[in-house]
Amino acid sequence: FGRKKGMRREGARKPVMAQSSETAARARRKRIMATPAFLYACVMVMGAVGASLRYVLENLLPGSPLPFSTLCINLFGCYIIYVIYQWFGRRVHLPHAVVRGLGVGLVGAFTTLSAFSTECLSFLQNGAFGPFALYLTLTLAGTFAASLLGWATVSALERRRMRQLTEEHKRNIRRVEDRRTPHGGDRGGAA
């Protein structure tokens, strides 16, 4: 009554054909993202972005007796790699190729162990034992602390998410209880 032929009522499901084409497209995207070619493409593109970011930061950060640009880059890399793999990879559930592209490609190309090693060797070759020891200590302790900070960040995000889920669960329980209880009556037992 009241509807023209071919019109859907409010809240009705989408036509079966539309659902199946959406499902097929989703399945096709999932298959493409699972291929080694997509993984390689993600790593290469993200690697180019990471290497470019490192180059820009090395040119922006001022030179000093210690290579602070490499130190800052490696500290940030150690922090963010933990967040990428533990939060985005395991909790946000990004596609595997995207997570690997971010981790191996972006952060792998952004951070630089080879520059750190070359800079340390340069200090030693020039007899600068004090700056060598300071740079080595700052890098080793700092990267460990940055990784620990990444762990703390992920832990805080998990606690926050659990509080949100708990509150949502409590609201849902109250909603169900409110539907079961007649309005205006008491919730619990006999009068």
Task: Kindly summarize this structure in a few lines.
The chain is mostly helical. Helix content is 75%, strand content 0%.
Structural account:
The chain is an all-alpha fold and 191 residues long. 75% of the residues lie in helices and 0% in strands. The protein has 6 helices and no strands. Helix 2 packs parallel to helix 4, helix 3 runs antiparallel to helix 4 and helix 3 packs parallel to helix 6. The radius of gyration is 27 Å and the shape is flat. It starts with 15 loop residues before the first helix and ends in an 11-residue tail after the last helix.
Strand portion: under 5%
Q: What's the N-to-C terminus distance?
A: 46 Å
Going by helix content, strand content and strand pairing, the class is mainly alpha
Radius of gyration: 27 Å
User: Helix tally?
Assistant: 6
N to C succession of SSEs:
HHHHHH
Main sheet summary: none
Poorly predicted runs are: none
Instruction: Give the strand tally.
Output: 0
Provide the helix percentage. over 70%
From the spread of the alpha carbons, the general shape counts as: flat
Mean pLDDT: 85
Defining traits:
191 residues; mainly alpha; 6 helices; 75% helix; 0% strand
